Amino acid sequence: MDIKEEEHNQEQPVEITLSSCPGTTPATPLSKNQLKKQRKHAEMLELRKLRRMKERERRKEKRMEAKAKGLPVNVGPSRKELKRRQITAIEKQSSPDTISVAIDLDYDDLMQERDVAKCVKQCLRIYTINRRATRPLRLHFTGIKSEGHIHECFKKNDGWENWHVDYHFDRTHTELFDKQKMVYLTCESDTILEKLLPGYTYVIGGLVDHNHFKGLCHQRATSAGLLTARLPLSEHVDMKTRSVLSTFHVFELLTRVAANQGWTQAILETIPQRKGAKAKETSRGMEIMQTDGQENGKHNENEQDKVERSNERTNDLGEKLMTS
Questions:
Q1: Which long-range contacts (CB under 8 A, 24 or more apart) does 298-305 make?
Q2: Which contiguous run of DSSP H or E holds residue 143?
Q3: What is the mean pLDDT of the chain?
Q4: 193 is annotated as contributing to ligand binding
Q5: Spatial CA neighbour of 168 closest among 226, 222, 103, 113
Q6: 137 carries a ligand binding annotation
Q7: Residue 209 is among the residues annotated as catalytic for this protein
Q8: Are residues 90 and 140 in the same domain?
Q9: What's the CA gap between 67 and 86, in Å, rounded?
């Protein structure tokens, strides 16, 4: 029986796999760093689900508390109102006097993977800010490289193609807009942005570099012959930290100013509290002080004239008495 079994085993063909094939090397296992990244990614996905569940519970509790106190349940504009604003904004965006904002995303190769993710996250916040703004601006995402890092990161967001944004792949702002009506916003510019002009396009650099490429946006803009300007931060507020804002903060500030909000109030309501911003004494306040001083001077002059006139009357009366 043993001999027959050995003969039977010898007749069966040996199964050849990739690992048993001669001339091949076994696959290398994942490194500790790669395993750690996979584990962190899985944990992040689980935490994201938990955070969303907690956010839903918090919103539900807030609605219940507001309902119990007799307050309006909806905090902020409703979906119907947001949809109406979008339709109105789309109709107005066809006008030549529309104010446009372009996010320059032509920095794909200069950012690391985590910085690319932060950049796309800021773009998501910009879209949300514009969607909820009382006066939405026409929003452009320019310089996106097809199948590049930013494009791949956009694909991770469900429904990104349906955003009310003008996407421009492999085309920069210099190819899309009139250079005479385009202003690149950089903190290195000597020109101060005093107001938003209708029909102009304001470009914001979508670069997350932690100050590694300082002045790059300004250098690119000036070399392309574009107008540049900086936000009037130091003219309206005093800050403890540097006056450099993130991309979505700059965009939010523009939406507030476009809605006829003053620069000082818009800046204080936009920038984070950690910057410790405080409003400056405006030139208007100095004018009021000067006018008050002038009015006080006029009042003193009037009083002095009255005294002099009364003295003149007294002297005239004395002369009459003496002659009589």
A1: none
A2: strand 138-144
A3: 77
A4: no
A5: 103
A6: no
A7: yes
A8: no
A9: 29
Among residues 223, 171, 203, the alpha carbon closest in space to that of 104 is found at: 203
**In which domain, by residue range, is 70 found?**
62-94
CB < 8 Å & 24+ apart, contacts of 300-308? none
The tokens for 125 are 């916040």
pLDDT value of residue 59: 81
Q: Which residue has the higher pLDDT, 148 or 78?
A: 148
Whether the per-residue pLDDT at 20 is higher than 70: the answer is: no
Q: Residue 208 region, left (φ>0) first, then alpha (ψ -120 to 50), else beta?
A: beta
* Least confident piece of the model among 7-11, 285-289, 299-303: 285-289
Of 109, 158, 209, 305, the catalytic one is 209
pLDDT tens, position by position, 283-292: 444 433 333 4
CA distance 271 to 260: 18
In this structure, are strands 278-279 and 182-185 parallel, antiparallel, or unpaired? Answer: unpaired
Residue 25 lies in a domain: no
Please check if 205 is assigned to a binding site. yes
Instruction: Determine, yes or no, domain membership for 31.
Output: no
185 is in an annotated binding site: yes
Give the CA count within 13 Å in the CB-facing half-sphere of 212.
Answer: 9
Can you give the pTM of this predicted structure? Answer: 0.64
Shared domain check, 83 and 220 = no
pLDDT of 300 > 50? The answer is: no
